[in-house]
Amino acid sequence: MGDGPPSLWEWIARNWDTGRVGSIRDLLGDHLLMSLVPIVLGLALALPLGLASVRWRWLYQPTAGIFNVIYALPSLPLFMLLISVTGLSPITVIVPLTFYAMAVLIPAVVDGIGSVPPHVRQSAVAMGFTPLRRLVQIELPIAAPVVIAGLRVVAVSSISLVSVGALIGEGGLGMLFTRAYQNPFLPPVVVGIVLIVALALIADGLLLLAQRLLTPWVRARGAS
Amino acid sequence: MDRLSLEAPTGEITVFVGPSGCGKTTSLRMINRMIDATEGRILLDGEPVQDIDPPTLRRGIGYVIQQAGLFPHRKILDNVATVPYLLGWDRRKARDRAMELLERVGLDPGLAGRYPFQLSGGQQQRVGVARALAADPPVLLMDEPFSAVDPVVRTSLQDELLRLQSELNKTIVFVTHDIDEAIKLGDQVAVLRVGGKLAQLAAPKTLLSEPADDFVREFLGRDRGIRRLQFVSTEGLRLRTDLPAPEGAGTFVFGTDSLRTALDAALLSPSGTAVAVDERGEVVGVATREALDEALAEAAHG
Amino acid sequence: MNWLIDFFGDPARWTGFDGIPVRLLEHLEFSALALALAMLVAVPIGLLIGHTGRGGVLVVVSANLARALPTLGLLVLFVLLLGTASIWPVIIPLVLLAVPPILVNTFEGIRGVDPELRDAAYGMGLRGGQVLGRVLVPVALPLILLGLRLSAIQVVATTTVAAYTGLGGLGRFVIDGFATKDYASVVGGSVLIVLFALVVQIAFTLAQRVTVSPGVSQRLKTR
């Protein structure tokens, strides 16, 4: 073994935590930051925009239209165009990913609120709920499964998309891919792919769990 | 399905009625082999349906279902012409036939170029009937065709079906869970119980007067005595011609309307008597309570 | 802005093997090739699974997995494993990533057709293939086309990234420019890619208008 290139496990052990920038652990941290911020920020922005689109129907078509167009734009040119504004920083990756997240989540919020049966909404009105209480206590809980389904799509695709940022030097675990390509060597690619898919599946699983806990009635109905 | 054996006479309407889970729809769908029977035989004009290739069989049997099942991507005219197209008819002939049927089921020919979503539920259901009749099949299967429309539309669709049937004389098998619909439409009614057993097969009148057992009696509901009167003619009613027609009295068409209609007219009149009129609406006499009472007594015994 | 003028105003950018027309055609060629191959695989399988109702789990799992796979990683992996002697080590991952959106939406589209409609079609004597071709596909077409559109978005983006592993196309302006600090090339190339993606979007929207029956899209107003 001694003279040949290191095996997969040797390579991992040697690079896991070198104490310097670019260790696997370091990249993992970057990756989490750059994928979590767009998910959270996307939700925080999509919620009011989606609710506004439900309240004022005319707002929905143009909003959805704009985000549909943004969603169709490849990430790499967006990163490149943003560099002149935000420089070479994680923000350059975070901004487009946040827009993609909003493109998925705004329709999810609108559809989710739309999934509230009219008779449920009307009986809430009839019982004297104020609009805000009705939103928080009735409509949002009923919309939750649809919104969380959107969130799962957003989480998984954000986590995998961050790696494209490696092409501008801000890719989290994606840096392993450019490193492997420049110095042709397989282990970093394999580790990168496995870690990213694992992160995505964990995020997906956690969101699924959250949905089960937050909306137990959905599962109960599905089981019967 | 459990040893269900019955015959649907040519040119008549046979209604399958029963609670949900009685297998009435399953029985219907066995006829055009949408479901295959595990055992037993179904004969169509003496030929076992099991021997006929299902698509060929189905093209010769009209099929109408609850939500009409119109093809949303095709215009009304092309929806109606579906089976003629399948049978390889000339395009123009198929379309002419479809136009003729649209009028026949009481639809405005101007709807021919519309898409299904532009029509009301009742209109869609009429298109469904027209589509089933397009290739002039001798047999028509109708699976709760009118149960998704509101009561007013349902009544008019039922009347329309009876009118069509008086012209076309198709062999119709009709499934419903609504006993009133069964009694109104059926020449014979098959009451099925849960598990697919035939509880009774009889003409509606017989069903009301002689229910076979408690299940049928309960299924028919409480006021079957009154309902039975709709099968008793007013022909035998003794009319008084010496009395003036009272103000505001209800009327019935003598000889055509049933005793139930006459009784209803009397009950709604301030005078308690019903006025008999002929087809043109001319007064032919007055049915007093005594006369109605006599007729009721006769009906109860006969 | 100056970068854009530098880029599009320079006559040298418009000629040669690395000029704008050639790169544009390459981008179109690779994207169209990958999309066509993906369609060839995904549409028949999606129709079959949707029509028979068997194998739905496979579709859902493949879709989730495909979304989680990092495109850049997959491209580098294939190139390291298969070399760069031909374009196939790059085209294969492009196709792999393009398949799931088409597969899922075709499957969901066919499976989601109102069962009453399927019932009516069989009841009138259409054969299995006729039910699929004359009823299910036209009714499911909006979703099938959505799948194709999402897949095209994916392919255009991945083709851009694939320039990193040596594939031609518009991505080269961006990636080579970034490496050589030629920012006119980076910005000009980015704008070209964005325009390309927009044109693809518009093309799909138009295709949808033309092919989907007004009875399905319910675009007509009832007079």
What is the element layout, followed by pairings?
The complex is a heterotrimer of chains A (224), B (302) and C (223).
Chain A: H1 8-15, H2 24-55, H3 60-71, H4 75-86, H5 90-114, H6 118-126, H7 131-161, H8 175-182, H9 186-214, H10 216-223
Helix pairs in contact in A: 2-5, 2-7, 3-5, 4-5, 5-7, 6-7, 7-9, 8-9
Chain B: E1 13-17, H1 24-31, E2 43-44, E3 47-48, H2 54-59, E4 61-64, H3 76-80, H4 82-86, H5 91-104, H6 121-133, E5 139-143, H7 151-168, E6 171-176, H8 179-185, E7 188-193, E8 197-202, H9 204-209, H10 214-220, H11 224-228, E9 251-253, H12 259-268, E10 274-277, E11 283-287, H13 289-301
Parallel strand pairs in B: 1-6, 1-7, 4-5, 5-6, 9-10
Antiparallel strand pairs in B: 2-3, 7-8, 10-11
Chain C: H1 2-9, H2 20-52, H3 56-68, H4 71-82, H5 88-111, H6 115-123, H7 128-162, H8 171-179, H9 183-211, H10 214-217
Which terms would index this structure?
heterotrimer; A: 224 residues; mainly alpha; MetI-like fold; B: 302 residues; alpha/beta; Rossmann fold; CBS-domain; 2 domains; six-stranded mixed beta sheet; 16% strand
Outline the structure in words.
The complex is a heterotrimer of chains A (224), B (302) and C (223). By secondary structure, chain A is mostly helical. In chain A, 78% of the residues lie in helices and 0% in strands. Chain A has a single domain (20-223), classed as MetI-like (MetI-like fold, Orthogonal Bundle), CATH 1.10.3720.10. Chain A has helices spanning 8-15, 24-55, 60-71, 75-86, 90-114, 118-126, 131-161, 175-182, 186-214, 216-223. Chain A starts with 7 loop residues before the first helix and ends with a helix. By secondary structure, chain B is α/β, with parallel strands linked by helices. The longest helix of chain B has 18 residues, at 151-168. A 6-stranded mixed beta sheet of chain B has the order 4-5-6-1-7-8, with helices on both faces. In chain B, strands 9-10-11 form a 3-stranded mixed beta sheet. A two-stranded antiparallel ribbon of chain B has the order 2-3. In chain B, helix 5 packs across helix 6. Chain B is built from 13 helices and 11 strands. Chain C is mainly alpha-helical. Chain C has a domain at 18-170: MetI-like (MetI-like fold). Chain C contains 10 helices and no strands. The N and C termini of chain C lie far apart (50 Å). The A-C interface holds A 68-69, 71-78, 80-81, 83-84, 153, 156-157, 159-161, 163-164, 166-168, 171, 173-174, 176-178, 180-181, 184-186, 189-190, 192-193, 196-197, 200-201, 204 and C 64-65, 67-74, 76-77, 79-81, 153, 156-157, 160-161, 164-165, 171, 174-175, 178, 183, 186-187, 189-191, 193-194, 197-198, 200-201.
